[in-house]
Design a protein that fits this description.
- The structure is a homodimer of 183-residue chains.
- Chain A is built from five helices and nine strands, in the order E-H-H-E-H-E-E-H-E-H-E-E-E-E.
- With 183 residues, chain A is α/β, with parallel strands linked by helices.
- Chain A is globular and about 40 Å long.
- The two termini of chain A are 27 Å apart.
- Chains A and B meet through strand 6, strand 7, strand 8 and strand 9 of A and strand 6, strand 7, strand 8 and strand 9 of B.
- Strand 7 of chain A pairs antiparallel with strand 8 of chain B.
Chain lengths: 183, 183
Amino acid sequence: MVSPAVHYHTVMSLDGYVAPPDGCQRWLRPFLEAGSEEMQAALASTGAFVMGRSTYEQQIAEGEWRFGDYPTLVLTSHPVMNPPPGVEVRGGCPKAALDVLASRMTHGNIWLYGGGYTAARFLDAGLIDRLWLAIVPVVLGGGWPPFDGANGPTGFIRRQVREGPKDMVYILYERDVEGAGSK
Amino acid sequence: MVSPAVHYHTVMSLDGYVAPPDGCQRWLRPFLEAGSEEMQAALASTGAFVMGRSTYEQQIAEGEWRFGDYPTLVLTSHPVMNPPPGVEVRGGCPKAALDVLASRMTHGNIWLYGGGYTAARFLDAGLIDRLWLAIVPVVLGGGWPPFDGANGPTGFIRRQVREGPKDMVYILYERDVEGAGSK
């Protein structure tokens, strides 16, 4: 069986933050609304989600579970009480957890939903096949990074650059399997 | 007299770092070489440079002063020994220092050369007219930010997006004078 590809989608400020220091995402709302078509398009080829503990807790706190019945993996070493249907909780290494998630999937790619710490672990394990950046035309000046503590430098290959709504820039990268730019 | 415009040029990893934690720029060298035409083009419309103390010390440490006889301002509150010709050292607020620099210029724009702390001070004072980003297709995972400690969110307007050599992406932003995105 071919493993499903892992796509990391991230929306960040032009100075590289996915959230300000206090985590409040009000600054991002107009851009997320403007980019919702792009997200819907990505969803069409998605068969499962993976996320870290903090991102999961944020989603739960928002009240509405937006991942429907998609097979969803929460990577955490601590127990989770009463997860929504479709959610599996696992600790351990990213690769083993992904294999379990893949066995539950019927189609599509795995959408790595964040956050930055989880993305860094996947990156360091060589597991991010595509990286989709939406760059918002705002400087935050500090905050939470998209790859929190990754062991760089890790090179990618640019596949597509597009102008999005509200002065956003979309860049699609692919993993540089052999590249001189990678570790 | 019309004040010269301030252009901040910055080359950063796709996760928003201008340098890794140890400050060593070996990872960046192939990209700087590939992008040298772009830099030469920017230089053609430049009449002066401004930089912070750390950036100045780095440039001095590299042995060759690459700014020729351009009027150059080093913004620092500590004295500098034997600066190269054309270099003026000033403390205080960015606006007052810029006015002094402008009085010495005969043409062109002011190139804000860095680093991130100095750029943040200029940004917070509303003094960055253009922001030119070169995004390198590399994840660093940590390091030095392009606007270190700026009081965001500050909005910009996207003016141009281009694909550069070696999978770089060039984005030109302009200051959002009235924008809802700015402070």
